[in-house]
Design brief:
The complex is a heterodimer of chains A (108) and B (117). With 108 residues, chain A is mostly beta strands. Chain A is built from no helices and twelve strands. By secondary structure, chain B is mainly beta. Helix content of chain B is 0%, strand content 47%. Chain B is built from no helices and eleven strands. In chain B, strands 2, 4, 5, 6, 9, 10 and 11 form a seven-stranded mixed β-sheet that branches. Chain B is globular. The chains are: A mainly beta (108), B mainly beta (117). Chains A and B meet through strand 6 and strand 11 of A and strand 5 and strand 10 of B.
C-alpha cells in the first residue's frame, strides 16, 4: 500500500537558517504530493502541492520538487522566520496518506 | 467563505460510553473526509464520502465506529463503545470534488479533541 516517510523531529533552527524537511513515499500510480502545515492552535492547512513529476510547488518562501526517480518531495526554505514555527506534514493523494509530522521551532 | 465547522471542540467520556461528532463542510464541497489524529502522529483517514456515498472506509474500525452523511452535506461520526485508545483529535475535511480544487486539496476543520478515561 501507499506510505509516506517523513524526517523525524523536532527540528530547532535559528532565524534566517536554511530548512530542509525530508519526505519520501511509496505509491502505486502517479499520486499528487502535498505539504500541509499546522500552526500552534490552528487547523491543518495546505502549504503547497505538486501534481506530476518534476513539478515544483511553492508558497510563502517554501519549495518542494516532485522527484519521481528518488520518490521524494523534500520541503525547503532558504531563510526561516520565527513565524514558521509549526508542524509540517507530507501527504500523498489517493488514499490520503500523511507522514507523522515534523515539528519546527525557529528561535530569534 | 465559511470554513469547515466541527462540534464539539472537546469531549471527555468514560470507556464504554458512546460519543458523536458533527461536521459541516464548506458549501458546495462534494467530498468529505474523517481523520483520526493520535498525539504525535499524522492524520489517519477513517472514511471518505463523495456526496452521500462511501468511497473508502477501509481503515474505519467498523465494530465500533460508524459514519453517515445524509443528504450529501453534514456528517456525523459515532464511536460506540469507546476505548481508551480512541483518545485522539478527530478531523473533518472537505474538498470540492473527487480530486478537490486541484487533485486532493482539502480544507480542514479545527477538530474535536476526544479524551477517553
Amino acid at each position: 500500500g501507499n506510505s509516506v516517510t517523513q524526517m523525524e523531529g523536532p527540528v530547532t533552527l535559528s532565524e534566517e537558517a536554511f530548512l530542509t524537511i525530508n519526505c519520501t513515499y511509496t505509491a502505486t500510480g502517479y499520486p499528487s504530493l502535498f505539504w500541509y502545515v499546522q500552526y500552534p492552535g490552528e487547523g491543518l492547512q495546505l502549504l503547497l502541492k505538486a501534481t506530476k513529476a518534476d513539478d515544483k510547488g511553492s508558497n510563502k518562501g517554501f519549495e518542494a520538487t516532485y522527484r519521481k526517480e528518488t520518490t521524494s518531495f523534500h520541503l525547503e526554505k532558504g531563510s526561516v522566520q520565527v513565524s514558521d514555527s509549526a508542524v509540517y506534514f507530507c501527504a500523498l493523494s489517493g488514499d490520503m496518506r500523511f507522514g507523522a509530522g515534523t515539528r519546527l521551532t525557529v528561535k530569534p | 467563505e465559511a470554513g469547515v465547522a466541527q462540534s464539539p471542540r472537546y469531549k471527555i467520556i468514560e470507556k464504554r460510553q458512546s460519543v458523536a461528532f458533527w461536521c459541516n463542510p464548506i458549501s458546495g464541497h462534494a467530498t468529505l473526509y474523517w481523520y483520526q489524529q493520535i498525539l504525535g502522529q499524522g492524520p489517519k483517514l477513517l472514511i471518505q464520502f463523495q456526496n452521500n456515498g462511501v468511497v473508502d472506509d477501509s481503515q474505519l474500525p467498523k465494530d465500533r465506529f460508524s459514519a453517515e452523511r445524509l443528504k450529501g452535506v453534514d456528517s456525523t461520526l459515532k464511536i460506540q463503545p469507546a476505548k481508551l485508545e480512541d483518545s485522539a483529535v478527530y478531523l473533518c475535511a472537505s474538498s470540492l470534488d473527487w480530486r478537490g480544487t486541484g487533485p486532493g486539496e482539502q480544507y480542514f476543520g479545527p477538530g474535536t479533541r476526544l479524551t477517553v478515561t
